[in-house]
């Protein structure tokens, strides 16, 4: 690959037509102990990646919500075991109901 074919990063020249805007950015850069170039680049990068960060945070929250919801369902007890336990409990209740019904039918 020739050097001329490589993608080169280009310098960017910024103009600040509004002196108040320039002064505000210069003061913020000084307060952050950064050059204006570093400050502008870091602010631009923060803004450019903000959407990605919001998306990733929402995905993490959804994952945590889902994890908690499924944990409440049955503490990871397999469905077959849960169904078998429910069926056994239903049969036991039916047996108890049948025994109680027989008590009131004395002839």
> Count of helical segments?
3
Question: How much of the polypeptide forms β-strand, as a percent range?
Answer: under 5%
Mean pLDDT: 81
How far do the termini sit from each other? Answer: 104 Å
Helix content: over 70%
Q: SSE order, as H and E?
A: HHH
Low-pLDDT stretches are: none
Overall body shape: rod-shaped
Task: Give the structural class.
Answer: mainly alpha
Radius of gyration: 34 Å
What's the assembly state of these chains? Answer: single chain
Q: How would a textbook summarize the main sheet?
A: none
Number of strands: 0
Please write out the topology.
Layout: H1 19-31, H2 36-74, H3 79-103
Helix pairs in contact: 1-2
Description:
This protein is an all-alpha fold. 72% of the residues lie in helices and 0% in strands. The chain is built from three helices and no strands. It has helices at residues 19-31, 36-74, 79-103. Helix 1 crosses helix 2 (36-74). The longest helix is centred in the middle third of the chain and has 39 residues, at 36-74.
């Amino acid at each position: 690959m020739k050097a001329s074919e490589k993608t080169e990063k280009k310098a960017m020249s910024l103009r600040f037509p509004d002196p108040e805007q320039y002064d505000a950015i210069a003061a913020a850069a000084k307060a952050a102990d950064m050059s204006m170039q570093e400050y502008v680049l870091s602010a631009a990068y923060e803004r450019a990646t903000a959407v990605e960060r919001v998306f990733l945070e929402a995905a993490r929250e959804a994952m945590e919500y889902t994890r908690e919801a499924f944990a409440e369902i049955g503490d990871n007890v397999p469905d077959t075991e849960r169904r078998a336990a429910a069926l056994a409990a239903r049969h036991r209740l039916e047996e108890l109901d049948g025994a109680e019904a027989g008590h009131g039918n004395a002839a």
